[in-house]
Amino acid sequence: MLGGYRARLAAQDVVANPTKHEELPEVQAQRQAEQCFVSDLTNLGKVKASQIKRRLRVADTFGKGQRELQIVVTTDYKVFVFLVKPWSGKYKPGADAKDWMKITETEEQTTIKMMKSPLLEIEQQCKLLHSHLVSTGAPVKSNAVEGFLIFSDSSIELPEDILELEHVLTGSKIKAFCRKLEKTWTQYFTDPLKPSFFTGALSYKQLSAASVGLSKGGSYDKIQLTGGRLIEGDFKACPMTSFDRSEIGRLDFIHNRTTWFGSAKALLGAQPTVTIRLYKRGQTPGWISSGIFSTNEIPFNVSVDFHAAGETAVAKIPVNEIEFITLA
User: Fold this and answer.
1) 172-180 and 25-43 helices, crossing angle to 10°
2) Structural domain boundaries in the chain
3) pLDDT per residue over 85-127, tens digit each?
4) β-pair partners for 326
5) Which of 127, 208, 264, 272 is the most buried (most CB within 10 A)?
6) Of 34, 62, 213, which Cα lies nearest the Cα of 127?
């Protein structure tokens, strides 16, 4: 009996002191850079949130599976693809157009790191997006899809010929580009009266089809871990919890991490558990309308199956270390 109580106390100690997963610095820098650029699009370019798609997944005809497009924006004239790189330091294209070099120089040595050319990457992403739109029935010409490479850190060192490229934006060029996206009052009144054939704008039929096509692209599920780390990928399963993905958009994991309360429950013979709140798609936790679809209680020592983006194997993540999961 005493041994069982000690085991339950040890279990409660695990619950009260979960492993902390801090966000990886490079991942945090990437997300911040993307968010900063999206803020410029909405604040300076007056681009509506409904015009922006983030982390869009489309079929990858250059390889296998799917490719992720960071930021896609639909305007009256173009469908833009943006590739944001928060790089700092010195970079230059390699002898092969497929590669770039990051050059790190010190007094002792010069280090060169090879990587895929971001110019080639954004070119491929434009072709993939165009193929996706056409495959979903959007009659959009290839020249209506335009890509831009965004270097968010103005301290980056690039060759002059790269900086002069129209589709490479860094420093003040980023905000200048965003400002040009804002429509004038005159355009709001006159554009609907001008035939798209003469203005070069996308027709209403093309815009509607493009919007439908973008809505058919996938995106990643997200899992928030204790400590703040956010992982993107595909949610696979949660033990003793079944639901229809078309109805559920979020799972909150409620933990009792209070030591004294957990110890009291252990004394009474109870094992720690985790309560899962399932929220209806489109609903988020709140005071006015909770949107709770159902709740479920599961043992604290089981794991969720989650396939992180870029990984080959499905990971088992302890529910004790999960804060919430949002479903794409």
Assistant:
1) 40
2) 2-21+226-326, 25-215
3) 999 999 999 988 899 999 999 888 999 999 999 999 999 999 9
4) 222, 250
5) 272
6) 62
